[in-house]
Amino acid sequence: MRPGINEATAWVVPNGALMSLSEKKRTPDPASDGEVKNGPPAIHFWFGLLLGLFFIVSGVGKMLDVNSFKSALELYGVPGWLTVVAIPIPSLEILLGLALLFNGPARSLVLASLLSLIFFTLAFAYGHFVQGVQDCGCFGRLTVLQSSPIASFLRNAALILFCLYLYRVKQRKEPRPLAGWQWLTLAVAGALAFMLSGISSVTPLLQSGPSFLHKQISATPLVHYIEPEAVSPYVIFAYSTSCSSCWDAIENVKTYKETGLVQKIYGLTYGDEIDLLEFEERFASNFGSKRIDPDSFNALVAQTPTLFYIENGEVRDVQTLTVMSAARFLEERLIGESSE
């Protein structure tokens, strides 16, 4: 018995008044919506802020060019018809990030973040070790944030550990009620992100990637995929066998050789040999195609399909997403020459 407290005194103390220190520390604060915090609140705030910003930046990067995001999904082996899921993903990431910023790391939001990170990490592991993908595509068109595969795995592992820590120590399961302006921000941001994602699935909001226009082909990586004695003029057609825009373009591409505008068409693609054989049989291609690894392909084009027209050793024209027929190409060329 502690000094200064006799038995008589101990008997008259109200039941429960002599709580242990550990019990006292776990008493919910009436002003905290019943939330119990087992760690320093500052850490919770910064971890929640980090998670929120990560999802917002990731969503915005994908939103700028959903067409390329769809192409990236194809590198993972996702069928072309299923790549439509690329449209809502940026909106969902942005909304999750904003919810984390507005609400702090409530357990339900942390759980959503944790499951998302685990799913995307497993998907990248499959893409990297099975399909040979080197860039996870986590930040879409924000290429300045691209990292090596090992750096991507380490980053995701750290974020997953953050989520596990927050889920363990945060006892508030549901987010706090949002203020009116927060609901309005979420509604406007979600609608705007979804609309812009739909637009960029056809026309990128931010164009990027290598520009070979008006360059000597010998000064570009394209030179590695043509014959040394290639007779000018010719075209190089970069495409995906599961890309619906490529399917639409193939008939126009064939006209370049059928009309005699070019001597040869060089096809470049990636993926399985079986898919390529089925593609060539389905569309009766009048040109041969070379399969290259995904990273080499991405170093050549940002979107598919892309057609390069080469004349006298120079890349004279580059067509992306939509390919003109040979007749339309000649018409546009004559108009351009007459206006000079």
**Strand pairing plus helix content: what structural class?**
alpha/beta
Query: What fraction of residues sit in β-strands?
Result: 5-15%
Strand numbers in spatial order across the main sheet: 3-2-1-4-5
Radius of gyration: 29 Å
Helix-strand string:
HHHHHHHHEHEHEHEEH
Report the strand count. 5
What would the principal axes of the Cα set say about the shape?
elongated
Low-confidence parts: 1-37
- Tally the structural domains: 2
The pLDDT mean sits at 82
Number of helices: 12
The largest sheet is: 5 strands, mixed
Helix content: 40-55%
Alpha carbon gap, first and last residue: 102 Å
What would you say this structure looks like, in words?
The chain is an alpha/beta fold. The protein has 2 domains: 34-200, no CATH class; 217-339, Glutaredoxin, CATH 3.40.30.10. It is 50% helix and 8% strand. It has helices at 7-12, 21-25, 41-63, 66-75, 88-103, 107-129, 149-169, 180-200, 244-258, 273-283, 294-298, 326-339, and strands at 234-238, 264-269, 288-291, 306-311, 314-320. It has a 5-stranded mixed sheet with strand order 3-2-1-4-5, covered by helices on one side. Strand 4 and strand 5 (314-320) form a beta hairpin. Helix 3 packs across helix 7. It is elongated and about 70 Å long.
